[in-house]
């Protein structure tokens, strides 16, 4: 043993966006402990929004000041172009989701009270609220920021858990349909813990192979270490299982519809946007920085996974009768389209186009999906949100504006020109074609056509069928929800009509590639 | 020499993995996940010995902390659903499907 441990140097300025978010989360816990009940949400909301906005400002400042060329914090965290772009995306999406979460009627007053018991009645009468939602959310967002920037498999594992653990809890806190919500939490927790155990064992095997968990050192070892291929291949496969689970790629997609349906809708919006963006950032970094030298071996596997994901997502979405489950399967299919971008990212010249297309797609999809789930929160009947698709019949006749906006989001998911979804798909598919992944693109286009069918089916249902007599009502949105729908619709239009600035930004971010 | 420990760790991981798939009680499923994490720890410590550096031993501490946090969250969720349904069987939670 030659282990003397050196004192680490940490570049606090580079890590400032994360530190702000984690700091605010800890301050939120203190507010929970010391502030009187009636003050809490009044303190939490500005604290949460300000910290997210502040972290975003710091991220922009960092990007303007110049992207560092070396990993920070002793090589543990890489703050490079793609990481900064992903941070900005996650912070904006989280900010928008908080506006949706602000309506506390989505969350249970007292999670410990049994559904339907006197205690629960009492908590409703007292207007009790779990304001812990805000600090939990900030911890999850902090994890999301760290995950795609982690340049070391141990940091990636810790970030994965910091991101997931608060989300497991948040899933179980829905006010209505609490059995579904609790079931979603149990399923997400058990499957999530199972998959992160795989990620960790993969980390252990790669540590055994390379003698380090640092991604750059693992990549270096790929060329020099011989005779230990079993460790390498099994380790890489297990890392892949852990990461693909978080994305919801095909053999590991089963949790997604259940969890998206059961969770409180604002949390679903955050998971469908923020978690997906963070997981794709981490997947790119682990497989291109850490295992880039092995791409001839893992690329065919990703081919298969991408095709399976697109097909499963698109086909199973057709059979859905629940709006949230349908959006979950649509999210699985989009995960498949994004995987095409991951595969197309490759040799140096090809890298920038594919990576920037992928980054643009993540922004476009993130905004649209938050908007779509925000609309879902507004269509309600006596039992809460009206999830069954038959209840959405004739919505276009009752509230044309809302139904029109939702139809627009669905068209953006389908990738119709003049919406952000079109340019996202175009950028990714084009990069894949010039990278030689033509078969994948053909499957992608066919899957998009299948997906377009069920999006259009919902639009037809909303506009061309007669509303049921006891149909759901559209609640007057709170200012937060209205703002979310407005921002999402605006982003979908602007990115669809005038995508160049964001494409340029993504291109600049992708140009510096990953620091190693 | 260290191979025995690696085999033991792989065995523990496999027992945990099979346990997650075949056991019915949510608590036992969760214990199996913890067994998998501990198998990882054993592998880390063994590889640290084999590679002659301390990284693996340090990582084991991180994993223990994460596992402890996971226990807190997991038991909270499982106890809540047990109080609602009077059952901790993972087969009973089947409202969400297809």
UniProtKB/TrEMBL annotation, chain A:
<feature type="transmembrane region" description="Helical">
    <location>
        <begin position="358"/>
        <end position="379"/>
    </location>
</feature>
<dbReference type="GO" id="GO:0005886">
    <property type="term" value="C:plasma membrane"/>
</dbReference>
<keyword id="KW-0520">NAD</keyword>
<dbReference type="Pfam" id="PF00361">
    <property type="entry name" value="Proton_antipo_M"/>
</dbReference>
<keyword id="KW-0472">Membrane</keyword>
<feature type="transmembrane region" description="Helical">
    <location>
        <begin position="84"/>
        <end position="101"/>
    </location>
</feature>
<keyword id="KW-1133">Transmembrane helix</keyword>
<protein>
    <recommendedName>
        <fullName>NADH-quinone oxidoreductase subunit N</fullName>
        <ecNumber>7.1.1.-</ecNumber>
    </recommendedName>
</protein>
<feature type="transmembrane region" description="Helical">
    <location>
        <begin position="133"/>
        <end position="149"/>
    </location>
</feature>
<keyword id="KW-1278">Translocase</keyword>
<dbReference type="GO" id="GO:0008137">
    <property type="term" value="F:NADH dehydrogenase (ubiquinone) activity"/>
</dbReference>
<feature type="transmembrane region" description="Helical">
    <location>
        <begin position="43"/>
        <end position="64"/>
    </location>
</feature>
<keyword id="KW-0874">Quinone</keyword>
<feature type="domain" description="NADH:quinone oxidoreductase/Mrp antiporter transmembrane">
    <location>
        <begin position="150"/>
        <end position="449"/>
    </location>
</feature>
<comment type="subunit">
    <text>NDH-1 is composed of 14 different subunits. Subunits NuoA, H, J, K, L, M, N constitute the membrane sector of the complex.</text>
</comment>
<feature type="transmembrane region" description="Helical">
    <location>
        <begin position="267"/>
        <end position="288"/>
    </location>
</feature>
<feature type="transmembrane region" description="Helical">
    <location>
        <begin position="476"/>
        <end position="498"/>
    </location>
</feature>
<dbReference type="InterPro" id="IPR010096">
    <property type="entry name" value="NADH-Q_OxRdtase_suN/2"/>
</dbReference>
<feature type="transmembrane region" description="Helical">
    <location>
        <begin position="326"/>
        <end position="346"/>
    </location>
</feature>
<dbReference type="InterPro" id="IPR001750">
    <property type="entry name" value="ND/Mrp_TM"/>
</dbReference>
<dbReference type="GO" id="GO:0012505">
    <property type="term" value="C:endomembrane system"/>
</dbReference>
<keyword id="KW-1003">Cell membrane</keyword>
TrEMBL record, chain B:
<dbReference type="GO" id="GO:0030964">
    <property type="term" value="C:NADH dehydrogenase complex"/>
</dbReference>
<feature type="transmembrane region" description="Helical">
    <location>
        <begin position="6"/>
        <end position="22"/>
    </location>
</feature>
<keyword id="KW-0472">Membrane</keyword>
<comment type="subunit">
    <text>NDH-1 is composed of 14 different subunits. Subunits NuoA, H, J, K, L, M, N constitute the membrane sector of the complex.</text>
</comment>
<keyword id="KW-0813">Transport</keyword>
<keyword id="KW-1133">Transmembrane helix</keyword>
<dbReference type="GO" id="GO:0005886">
    <property type="term" value="C:plasma membrane"/>
</dbReference>
<dbReference type="GO" id="GO:0048038">
    <property type="term" value="F:quinone binding"/>
</dbReference>
<keyword id="KW-1003">Cell membrane</keyword>
<dbReference type="GO" id="GO:0042773">
    <property type="term" value="P:ATP synthesis coupled electron transport"/>
</dbReference>
<feature type="transmembrane region" description="Helical">
    <location>
        <begin position="27"/>
        <end position="47"/>
    </location>
</feature>
<keyword id="KW-0874">Quinone</keyword>
<keyword id="KW-0812">Transmembrane</keyword>
<dbReference type="Pfam" id="PF00420">
    <property type="entry name" value="Oxidored_q2"/>
</dbReference>
<keyword id="KW-0520">NAD</keyword>
<keyword id="KW-1278">Translocase</keyword>
<dbReference type="InterPro" id="IPR039428">
    <property type="entry name" value="NUOK/Mnh_C1-like"/>
</dbReference>
<keyword id="KW-0560">Oxidoreductase</keyword>
<dbReference type="GO" id="GO:0050136">
    <property type="term" value="F:NADH dehydrogenase (quinone) (non-electrogenic) activity"/>
</dbReference>
<protein>
    <recommendedName>
        <fullName>NADH-quinone oxidoreductase subunit K</fullName>
        <ecNumber>7.1.1.-</ecNumber>
    </recommendedName>
</protein>
<comment type="similarity">
    <text>Belongs to the complex I subunit 4L family.</text>
</comment>
<comment type="function">
    <text>NDH-1 shuttles electrons from NADH, via FMN and iron-sulfur (Fe-S) centers, to quinones in the respiratory chain. The immediate electron acceptor for the enzyme in this species is believed to be a menaquinone. Couples the redox reaction to proton translocation (for every two electrons transferred, four hydrogen ions are translocated across the cytoplasmic membrane), and thus conserves the redox energy in a proton gradient.</text>
</comment>
């Amino acid at each position: 043993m030659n282990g003397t441990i050196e004192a680490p140097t940490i570049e606090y300025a580079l890590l400032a966006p994360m530190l702000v978010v984690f700091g605010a989360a800890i301050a939120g816990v203190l507010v929970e402990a010391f502030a009187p009940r009636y003050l809490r949400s009044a303190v939490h909301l500005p604290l949460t929004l300000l910290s997210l906005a502040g972290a975003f400002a710091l991220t922009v400042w960092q990007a303007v000041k110049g992207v560092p060329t070396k990993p920070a914090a002793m090589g543990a965290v890489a703050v490079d172009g793609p990481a900064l772009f992903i941070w900005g995306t996650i912070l904006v999406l989280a900010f928008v989701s908080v506006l949706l979460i602000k309506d506390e009627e989505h969350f249970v007053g007292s999670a410990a009270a049994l559904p339907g018991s006197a205690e629960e009645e009492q908590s409703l009468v007292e207007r009790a609220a779990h304001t812990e939602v805000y600090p939990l959310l900030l911890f999850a967002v902090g994890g999301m920021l760290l995950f795609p920037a982690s340049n070391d498999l141990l940091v990636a594992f810790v970030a994965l858990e910091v991101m997931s653990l608060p989300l497991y809890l948040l899933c179980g806190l829905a006010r209505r349909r609490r059995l579904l919500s609790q079931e979603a939490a149990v399923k997400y927790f058990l499957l999530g813990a199972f998959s992160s155990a795989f990620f960790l064992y993969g980390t252990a095997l790669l540590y055994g192979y390379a003698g380090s968990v640092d991604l750059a050192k693992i990549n270096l070892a790929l060329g020099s270490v011989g005779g230990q291929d079993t460790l390498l291949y099994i380790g890489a496969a297990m890392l892949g299982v852990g990461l693909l689970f978080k994305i919801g790629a095909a053999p590991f997609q089963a949790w997604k519809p259940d969890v998206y349906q059961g969770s409180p809708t604002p949390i679903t919006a955050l998971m469908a946007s923020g978690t997906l963006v963070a997981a794709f950032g981490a997947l790119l970094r682990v497989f291109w920085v850490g295992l880039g030298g092995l791409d001839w071996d893992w690329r065919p596997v990703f081919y298969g996974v991408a095709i399976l994901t697109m097909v499963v997502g698109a086909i199973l979405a057709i059979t859905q009768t629940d709006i949230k489950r349908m959006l979950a399967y649509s999210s699985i299919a989009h995960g498949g389209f994004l995987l095409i971008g991951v595969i197309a990212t490759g040799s140096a010249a090809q890298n920038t186009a594919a990576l920037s297309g992928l980054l643009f797609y993540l922004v476009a999809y993130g905004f649209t999906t938050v908007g779509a789930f925000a609309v879902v929160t507004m269509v309600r009947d006596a039992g809460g949100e009206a999830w069954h698709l038959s209840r959405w019949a004739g919505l276009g006749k009752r509230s044309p504006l809302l139904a029109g906006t939702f139809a627009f989001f669905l068209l953006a998911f389908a990738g119709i020109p003049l919406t952000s979804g079109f340019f996202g798909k175009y950028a990714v598919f084009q990069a894949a074609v010039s990278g030689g992944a033509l078969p994948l693109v053909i499957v992608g286009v066919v899957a998009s056509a299948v997906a377009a069918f069920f999006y259009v089916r919902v639009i037809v249902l909303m506009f061309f069928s007669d509303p049921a007599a006891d149909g759901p009502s559209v609640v007057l949105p709170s200012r937060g929800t209205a703002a979310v729908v407005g921002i999402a619709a605006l982003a979908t239009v602007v990115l669809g009509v005038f995508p160049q600035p964001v494409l340029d930004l993504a291109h600049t971010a992708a140009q510096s590639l990953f620091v190693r | 020499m260290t191979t025995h420990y690696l085999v033991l760790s792989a065995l523990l991981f496999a027992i945990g993995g099979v346990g997650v798939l075949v056991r019915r009680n949510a608590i036992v499923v969760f214990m199996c996940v913890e067994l998998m994490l501990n198998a990882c720890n054993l592998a880390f410590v063994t590889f640290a010995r084999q590679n002659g550096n301390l990284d693996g031993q340090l990582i084991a501490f991180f994993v223990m902390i994460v596992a402890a946090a996971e226990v807190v969250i997991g038991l909270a969720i499982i106890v809540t659903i047990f109080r609602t349904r009077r059952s901790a069987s993972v087969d009973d939670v089947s409202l969400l499907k297809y």
